[in-house]
Amino acid sequence: MGNALVTKVCSCRLIHLKTRSLELIIIFSLDTWTTMLYKKTNPVLKVVNMMELTRKGEYAIRGIIYLARKPAGKMALISEIAEATDVPQTFLAKIFQNFAKQGLVSSYRGTGGGFTLGRHASLITLREVVEAVEGPIVPNRCLISEGTCDQDGVCSVHQVWKKVQGEVVKILENVTIKDLAQL
What we know:
It is a single chain. By secondary structure, the chain is of the alpha+beta class. The protein has a single domain (54-183), classed as Arc Repressor Mutant, subunit A (Orthogonal Bundle), CATH 1.10.10.10. It is built from six helices and seven strands, in the order βββββαααββααα. It has helices at residues 55-69, 78-85, 89-101, 126-134, 158-173, 177-181, and strands at residues 5-9, 12-18, 22-28, 33-39, 42-50, 105-108, 114-117. The two termini are 35 Å apart.
């Protein structure tokens, strides 16, 4: 199997893996990963949503980008963030509590309180934000941990999934919240 080709197209990135009989193309955007399988023997393209980001993940990204666009040290109330990002306030509050536990945001109580980024936006990756609410990025259950799949040792696709996981993680790791806030 050749190396994965990663290309940026508009606001999406492509991961392209080839074998003799199959091409696996993953289109990654902020809200979904789409997988296209193209069999060379049958030129019909099949599009499958894979590893789709949940609404929680989408809301988390919107909220943290909003904070990143605020002047450094400027507090934002959860109600302000929710209104500006069109996210239900109670849902966003739970997401931000989780962010605070993981150090992605800092929360301050009382008058003049609110939320700020836990560290500079250039030091927070999209991977951290996604994994904070979605858990580890795993395109197939066989990668959760060794022994999860009874086909681990004999599955010829296992290495493909591992490569897909590595490429997606690399893409998310190389995008910072600062990058996204500047778009």
